[in-house]
Specification:
The protein is of the alpha/beta class. Helix content is 41%, strand content 25%. It folds into two domains: 119 residues, Response regulator (Rossmann fold, 3-Layer(aba) Sandwich); 94 residues, Orthogonal Bundle (Arc Repressor Mutant, subunit A), CATH 1.10.10.
Length: 222
């Protein structure tokens, strides 16, 4: 998954980003509203973690504009304000959930998983297809009954393909989803991860097809 973290406290932002990256997520960090707007205009995010009190304004302004643009990216508000009226106000503006500072990182991770499940309309996270069973939350993949160990980006790449079997993903799209803006990578890096994932899927009925000049597609031999 790719997250946008909007937080002006750099120590807290580093801590959140580190935890999320350990889980294999890609995180872009914005320290103010201007940066958050710039990221959201060009990035494709699965979830936004949004601080309210920012140096150049109120995060709820960003939330309001985000929803007014008909963008449905889930938003979890990070707030030091504990009053019920403040939390209700954020939810009324379109936030999907909120976490009150200070918070336990495990709680934040659990809330992220819950919001993403609601967004996908699924109460179960496991995907069963073509001889594989994939649990993106636990990071477990079994192929023909055998457990396979995936590195973080291999896991997220598989998660992306399984989110839309048969859909073509361009190399640039995969770069955008697998890496943050701070990562200095080329499209060749995608070829490496696709090749690794293909090997993991050798004993399944799934195949990653290369479409020259277009990108990659996950196909299922029925």
């Amino acid at each position: 998954m790719k997250f946008l973290l909007v937080e002006d406290n750099h120590d807290l932002a580093d801590a959140i980003s580190s935890r999320m990256r350990l889980d294999g997520h890609v995180v872009d960090h914005a320290g103010n509203l201007d940066e958050a707007t710039a990221f959201s205009e060009v990035g494709d995010y699965d979830l936004i973690l949004l601080d309210i009190m920012l140096p150049d304004g109120d995060g709820r302004t960003f939330l309001k504009e985000h929803r007014a643009s008909d963008l449905d990216t889930p938003v979890i508000v990070l707030t030091a304000r504990s009053q019920v009226s403040d939390r209700i106000g954020s939810l009324d503006l379109g936030a999907d959930d909120y976490v009150t500072k200070p918070f336990d990182h495990a709680e934040l991770e659990a809330r992220c998983r819950a919001v993403l499940r609601r967004k996908s309309g699924k109460s179960q996270t496991k995907v069963t297809l073509g001889g594989i069973v994939f649990d993106p939350v636990a990071g477990h993949l079994t192929v023909s009954g055998e457990m396979v160990t995936l590195r973080n980006r291999e896991l997220r790449l598989l998660e992306l393909f399984l989110s839309a079997p048969g859909q073509i993903f361009s190399k640039q799209k995969l770069v955008d989803r697998l890496f943050s803006y701070d990562d200095d990578v080329s499209e060749n890096a995608v070829e490496v991860y696709v090749a690794r994932l293909r090997k993991h899927l050798d004993n399944s009925d799934l195949e990653i097809t290369t479409l020259r000049g277009l990108g990659y597609r996950l196909d299922h031999d029925s």
